[in-house]
Design brief:
- The longest helix is centred in the middle third of the chain and has 31 residues.
- Helix 10 packs across helix 11 and helix 11 crosses helix 13.
- The radius of gyration is 24 Å and the shape is globular.
- Helices cover 56% and strands 8% of the residues.
- The strands form 4 sheets. A 5-stranded mixed sheet has the order 1-2-8-5-3.
- The chain has one domain: Cytochrome P450 (Cytochrome p450, Orthogonal Bundle).
- By secondary structure, the chain is of the alpha+beta class.
- It is built from 23 helices and 12 strands.
- Its cofactor is heme.
- One of its GO terms (molecular function) is heme binding.
- Belongs to the cytochrome P450 family.
- Keywords: Heme, Iron, Metal-binding, Monooxygenase, Oxidoreductase.
- This is Cytochrome P450.
Length: 527
């Protein structure tokens, strides 16, 4: 009986996948738009174009930019992020940027794309994402206060992952090692000591961040009526890491809640006032926010732990990809580039008394340029400003295309960063590209010059640089991420000698996402 039911479920799912690929629901899509990747004579243009795009997304997107950058087109994608998008012309990037979230929603793209309904077990995290407000306010404001601790954890993490051998070079798996370093430093800001040094907690957080996209992919190819049942199997890795993470963190949360409710209890238990002092980390801010809300559900230890786990999901993966890319770019550049960067870092540190501060990081303009240039040429997502139309009446573009409610739209990204009319020699990694551009800004208005130069920094956003999105719904944690990544890169450059590669290992595309080689190794030694 069980075997028969299993066969039925598998059979229905297979039929659903074929139907979804061959005959997608296109009634709600705008009519008369070209389909990127389709060819004349295709019997099943959505399926065939999705297949071609999956096999050669980079080439098809660059071709589409050349042919359709001034008009809307339909982009079918198979794999992660594989909704059917209406790709709007490059001239409408600002239009999309300016729309409020009750018209075009990034959050809906994330919630629907990652299938939070199934992959996140605590619905409070989805229905009440209050932690996002803390990112734009408290986390951003506290970066300077967090930097001393972040630098300590960065040093320890590099020593553990890259070693301290000054006599010989060693091979280092760049993707795995940078993921571990980012995870540890980031969790210093999230949960503080000693938990940011707990290998089991870090492993669970990193495991969850890497398991959820895989679970989502399996569920996305499952017939919707079967998803509640299939999710019991497909989300097992998510549940495993979620349970491990929350079980380890809940005792700390309960202890902090007790200290808030009865601060004298810790003193009577023999702790000094310094030991019960309120901590300055994201978990503490979440607890304060939950108590101020007056909603007892917000104060549940499981929910608070879940917020920290979600923060691991949204921050660690992208930061790991970014720092991996820049390390590979530098290791495949020239010794002169590495030496010039090292000299800048050492000079700034000397000027700032050897302290890793916001001022010191802001002075490292060559380092900042390298990060921005790497993020440009290795853009993590082929399309930018992904949004879902949530306005009931739909959305009408300036070119007259009407997108009914429920459509997904985006703008060109890959094509823009490889456009010679936008960037000189766009296919070349020029580490100090933005140093020259910033220094070239020199008008009679110092205030305007300051603003214009700031727009060319790593954490800035713009219509031709969408690494952090743009406008009202840009990445809220980009200023923290930028400081953290600058710190890591600067420390690595000063303390390790990298052996130059013959060439950078090729990337791979999974759906709309670009991934650096997970097997790439650097050869380095502590200097």
């Amino acid at each position: 009986m069980v075997l028969t039911i299993t066969k039925i479920v598998v059979g229905l799912t297979f039929v659903y996948i074929i139907r979804k690929l061959l005959f997608p629901s296109v009634a709600h899509l705008p009519k008369g738009l070209p389909i990127i990747g389709a060819k004349e004579g295709d019997w099943f243009p959505f399926f065939q174009s999705a297949w071609r795009n999956a096999r050669n997304l980079r080439g098809n997107m660059l071709e589409a930019y050349a042919k359709y950058k001034d008009q809307a087109a339909i982009l079918p994608i198979a794999g992660p992020g594989g909704q059917i998008f209406v790709l709007l012309p490059a001239s409408e990037t600002k239009l999309v940027t300016d729309q409020p979230k009750d018209v075009l929603s990034l959050r809906e793209v994330i919630v629907q794309g990652l299938l939070y309904e199934y992959t996140i077990s605590d619905n409070m995290l989805v229905s009440h994402p209050t932690h996002t407000k803390l990112i734009t306010t408290t986390l951003t404001n506290q970066v300077g206060n967090l930097l001393p601790g972040l630098s300590n954890e960065t040093v320890r993490a590099f020593e553990e992952q890259w070693g301290t051998d000054t006599e010989s070079f060693r091979n280092v798996g760049i993707w795995d090692s940078m993921g571990a370093i980012v995870c540890r430093a980031t969790n210093y800001a999230f949960v503080g000591l000693p938990y940011c040094r707990d290998p089991a907690l870090l492993s669970a957080g990193l495991g969850f961040a890497r398991a959820l996209p895989f679970s989502q992919l399996l569920l996305s190819f499952t017939w919707k009526p079967l998803r509640p049942l299939a999710s019991l199997l497909f989300t097992l890795p998510c549940r495993y890491y979620e349970r491990r993470f929350t079980q380890m963190l809940i005792p700390e949360i309960e202890n902090r809640l007790r200290n808030i409710d009865n601060p004298t209890s810790s003193l009577s238990a023999g702790k000094s006032p310094g030991e019960v002092e309120r901590k300055n980390d994201f978990l503490e801010w979440c607890i304060e926010q939950a108590r101020e809300s007056g909603d007892p559900r917000m104060c549940r230890p499981r929910t608070l732990a879940g917020r920290i786990l979600l923060m691991n999901l949204v921050s660690i993966h992208t930061s790991s990809l970014t720092i991996t890319n820049v390390m590979l770019d530098l290791a495949s550049s020239t010794p002169e580039v590495l030496e010039e960067l090292r000299a800048e870092v050492e000079q700034v540190l000397d000027e700032c008394g050897g302290q890793w501060t916001k001022l010191a990081l802001n002075k490292m303009e060559k380092l900042d340029s390298v990060l921005r240039e790497s993020a440009r040429i290795n853009t993590l997502v082929a399309i930018g400003l992904r949004r879902r139309v949530v306005a009931k009446e739909g959305f009408i573009t300036t070119s007259g295309v009407h997108l009914p409610c429920g459509n997904f739209c985006a703008v060109h990204n890959l094509g823009v960063v490889h456009d010679p009319d936008v960037y000189e020699q766009p296919d070349t990694f020029k580490p100090f590209r933005f140093v020259g551009l910033r220094r070239g800004i020199n008008s009679d208005d110092p205030n305007k010059d300051h603003v214009d130069r700031a727009r060319l920094t790593f954490a800035a956003t713009g219509s031709d640089y969408l690494a952090f999105g743009n406008g009202r719904q840009a990445c809220p944690g980009r200023f923290f991420a930028a400081s953290e990544l600058k710190l890591m890169l600067a420390y690595a450059l000063v303390n390790y000698d990298l052996e130059i590669m013959d060439s950078r290992p090729p990337d791979r595309w999974i759906g709309i996402l670009r991934m650096p080689s997970s097997n790439a190794k650097l050869r380095g030694q502590n200097n």
